[in-house]
Every structure is written in structure tokens, then in C-alpha cells.
């Protein structure tokens, strides 16, 4: 369930679920849908790690049209706890490597 009672986000619910499953499988870390109805793109997060992943919503990159084809990492709580990720965009492979490297001590 996301923050407003739906199973998936409002932008691209099937892609959110697909990205969540794919990332959980690759990292062995569980995530939940953290999308808000007014976000530019859907997101998933892990509260105990204080990490939120903003998901791609397009195959094309067009910031003016709020279309993103990369992943972005931020803090789950909205604070700047993950400044090392600020303004960085990740491919899926780079995202998995960053998460598994930075959060390798996380136990399910």
C-alpha cells in the first residue's frame, strides 16, 4: 500500500510494481510504494534504510515534460541524509551496485 491507500502509485502503477519486484530480486532488500499523487514520478522506499528510489516513467529523457529514463536516490524522510546521491541519475545496473555496496550490511 502506498501513502494514500492504493497498492501502486498513480502515475505508472504497473511499472512501479515491476521496478519494485526487479529491484528487490537484485538487491534482496524489500521496498514499499512511496508514491504521492503530486510527485513527478513514482517512487519506492525502505524506511529502515531511509532510502527512497525515484523511478523512471518514460523511455525518453525530457525534464521539461517530466519524463525520466533513469533512477534517482534520495532520503525516505525528505531530509538530506544521502547527499552523496544528490543530482545523480542511475541506470538500473548502477542503482543495484550503489545499493548493494552502500547498504550491504542490511539484513532482511
List the helices and strands and how they pair.
Blueprint: H1 13-27, E1 32-33, E2 43-46, E3 51-54, E4 72-74, H2 92-102
Antiparallel strand pairs: 1-2, 2-3, 3-4
Care to describe what's here?
The chain is of the alpha+beta class and 108 residues long. The chain has one domain. The protein is built from two helices and four strands, in the order H-E-E-E-E-H. The longest helix is centred in the N-terminal third of the chain and has 15 residues. The two termini are 19 Å apart. The model has no long low-confidence stretch (mean pLDDT 78).
- Structural class call reads alpha+beta
Q: With helices defined by DSSP (H or I, 4 residues minimum), what is the helix count?
A: 2
Q: Which stretches are low in confidence, meaning pLDDT under 50 for 5 or more residues running?
A: none
Q: What sequence of helices (H) and strands (E) makes up the elements?
A: HEEEEH
Profile the largest sheet: 4 strands, antiparallel
What's the mean pLDDT score? 78
Q: Which geometry do the CA atoms define?
A: globular
Radius of gyration: 13 Å
What is the share of helical residues? 10-25%
Distance N terminus to C terminus? 19 Å
Number of domains: 1
What's the total count of β strands? 4
- Beta-strand percentage range: 5-15%
* Strand order across the largest sheet: 1-2-3-4
Offer a concise description of the structure.
With 108 residues, this protein is α+β, with helices and mostly antiparallel strands.
Amino acid at each position: 500500500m502506498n501513502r494514500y491507500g492504493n497498492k501502486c502509485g498513480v502515475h505508472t502503477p504497473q511499472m512501479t510494481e515491476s521496478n519494485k519486484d526487479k529491484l528487490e530480486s537484485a538487491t534482496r532488500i524489500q521496498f514499499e510504494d512511496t508514491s504521492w499523487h503530486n510527485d513527478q514520478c513514482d517512487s519506492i522506499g525502505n524506511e529502515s534504510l531511509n532510502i527512497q528510489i525515484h523511478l523512471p516513467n518514460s523511455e525518453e529523457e525530457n525534464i521539461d515534460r517530466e519524463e525520466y529514463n533513469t533512477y534517482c536516490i534520495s532520503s525516505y524522510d525528505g531530509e538530506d541524509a544521502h547527499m552523496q546521491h544528490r543530482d545523480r541519475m542511475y541506470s538500473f545496473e548502477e542503482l543495484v551496485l550503489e545499493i548493494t555496496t552502500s547498504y550491504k550490511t542490511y539484513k532482511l
